[in-house]
Amino acid sequence: MGRQSRAHSDRTHRHADLTAPVKPKDEAFLFDLLRGLTAPPLLLILDNVQDPHNLGACLRTADGAGANAVIVPKDRSVRLTPTVQMVACGAAENVPLVLVTNLARVIDQIKDAGLWVVGTSDQAAQPLYALDLSGPLALVMGSEGRGLRRLTAEKCDFLASIPMQGSVESLNVSVAAGVCLYEAVRQRQAKSG
């Protein structure tokens, strides 16, 4: 089998695997996961993201960046749909999606577990690049259009902005997640090596 045929076969096989529904995890799973980690945790929290394409892209980016889990509230958020799985290109099977009942309470519990919680806001005075993202960390992204809810923003240890140079005011949530996750990866690699 040639290189091109093998690549097509691999893509077809991966696509076929995406037809089986993935079950989301619960809060107990999340805290068991955190207790079992030996490296500093990296979590992505999505506050009311409702577009399945955005959730799928966030899962794919989280997988690429080595995030340990993606957390979403049960209410007013998209679930693991076939569209989410398709857009995630296999990441939904690798990165646990954790559904939580009360996001504010879970953020408090994550902080109690020793993680710093950094939310993104275009209103934040300090840029993302001014923060130390190399330790135990949960990054919080807001919903499409509205950003972080007030209570979610208040629960964050820090709020940071992504510097914007052009005419648009903000990035798509999945792009913003990529910028933030990979800045954390860059800082972690620089610190370790």
The secondary-structure class comes to alpha/beta
Quick one: how many beta strands? Answer: 6
**Cα-atom Rg, whole angstroms?**
17 Å
Query: Which band does the percent of strand residues land in?
Result: 5-15%
Low-confidence stretches: 5-16
Shape: globular
| Major β-sheet profile | 6 strands, parallel
Order of helices and strands: HHEHEHHEHEEHEH
**Could you tell me the mean pLDDT?**
88
Strand order of the largest sheet: 3-2-1-5-4-6
Instruction: Give the termini distance in whole angstroms.
Output: 40 Å
Oligomer: single chain
Summarize the structure.
With 193 residues, the protein is an alpha/beta fold. It has helices at 3-17, 27-36, 52-65, 82-88, 91-94, 103-112, 150-155, 173-192; strands at residues 42-46, 69-73, 97-100, 116-120, 137-141, 158-160.
Notes on the protein architecture:
It is a single chain. This protein has eight helices and six strands; from the N terminus they run ααβαβααβαββαβα. The protein has 193 residues and is of the alpha/beta class. About 6% of the residues have low confidence. Helix 3 packs parallel to helix 4 and helix 3 runs parallel beside helix 8. It starts with a helix and ends with a helix. A six-stranded parallel β-sheet has the order 3-2-1-5-4-6, with helices on both faces. The longest helix has 20 residues. Strand 1, helix 3 and strand 2 form a beta-alpha-beta unit. The protein is globular, with a radius of gyration of 17 Å.
Supply the key terms.
193 residues, alpha/beta, six-stranded parallel β-sheet, 14% strand, globular
What does the secondary structure layout of this molecule look like, with pairings?
Elements: H1 3-17, H2 27-36, E1 42-46, H3 52-65, E2 69-73, H4 82-88, H5 91-94, E3 97-100, H6 103-112, E4 116-120, E5 137-141, H7 150-155, E6 158-160, H8 173-192
Parallel strand pairs: 1-2, 1-5, 2-3, 4-5, 4-6
Helix pairs in contact: 3-4, 3-8
